[in-house]
Amino acid sequence: MRLNFLSVFLLGNAQLPAPPAQPITLGEPLLYHAKVDSRTVRVALLEVDYGSEPARQRLRVQVAQSLTVRERIAQELLEQLLLPMGLMGLVLSALVYAGVLRGLQPLKRLEAQIERAGKRSHNAADPLPPIELTSAPQEVYSLASTINRLLEAVARGQQKEKRFLNDAAHQLRTPLAGLIGQTELALHESHEPQVRERLQKVLSAAQRSAHLVHQLLQLARSESNVPMQPLDLPQLACEVAREWTAKALAAGIDLGYEGEEHLSVLGHPLLLREALNNLIDNALHYAGRGATVTVRVYISAPSMAALVVEDDGPGVPEAHMGDLFARFWRGSDKPGGCGLGLSIVEEIALRHGGETLAETAGKQGLRVGMRLPLAENPSLSAPTTRS
């Protein structure tokens, strides 16, 4: 420390440099860098008055510290304070992360239950089971209860819709059957051309309505819970194909079966029979006279069996392949269809845990069907000859 009084050195280190050329304010410290023995130092300067009038005097005080010392002190502070604080921050971060994960576990269990319930449901028509949580915060319990109430409301709405569709189809079948019978009787008894023409139109409209009611009824049945059982898919396909042989011959169409002799799938016989009926009916209706329609059963993947109906008719444009299974969509204006047959096929395929397929067969034909899970790993057998 050096004391200056009228440029007289009193005490300290006389080598401390003077401040830079700038005004010094009395009573306010001045900080600046300087060199002492080729070492950079930080200097603090303060000038004060002391004494009384008329002998008032000014005292200058300078204090210098080497920057090396300052850097060493800063490094010691970093090592002694920041490092423990950093470690503490990491530990606290890990604790907070673990706490957040533990707090989110009930939501994870809730998500897993909803996902498992969705996997158990083959399609949107299956009601989801209620969500059950054994241990969870009150907020999560409230969320689960709200979801359960929503699921119950959706299930009730679905059941009402199914009952209405089923009841309406049942109620309409009897009067339509009577209308068709009476119209056919009137056609048989009438010999006037104009009357017969009008009766024929009435009969065609009644038959289309009856077909639509039948399709709606099958659609309602396909969306209900049905038991599954192992069955021989090729045997079922051959039986259904034989039932359509007479109608195919009357339409001038060659109908046959090609594929596996035995292949076991887990399914419902009536629903699969209805799906194949719709596929064959669709092929016979649109393929045209002189066409060839083939029912095929084969293994399409290691654990999947394919049930398809293939024809060499006019087919469907590639742009409309995605519309084939849409409800009430029709590929042509040819009378007789209602646009629900392939929709029912899709519902039945989803009910069995499978999927539908539609692709061009040959140059212009159509191959439509569904893939179904195998009941077991079957051994491949030689395809049968066309029947």
TrEMBL record:
Q: Can you list the GO cellular component terms from the UniProt entry?
A: plasma membrane
Q: Which domain of life is it from?
A: Bacteria
Q: Which compartments does it reside in?
A: Membrane
CDD domains linked to this entry: HATPase, HisKA
The main enzyme category here is: transferase
InterPro entries assigned to the protein according to its UniProt record, in alphabetical order: 2CSK_N, HAMP_dom, HATPase_C_sf, HATPase_dom, His_kinase_dom, HisK_dim/P_dom, HisK_dim/P_sf, Sig_transdc_His_kin-like_C
The EC number of this protein is: 2.7.13.3
Protein name per its UniProtKB record: histidine kinase
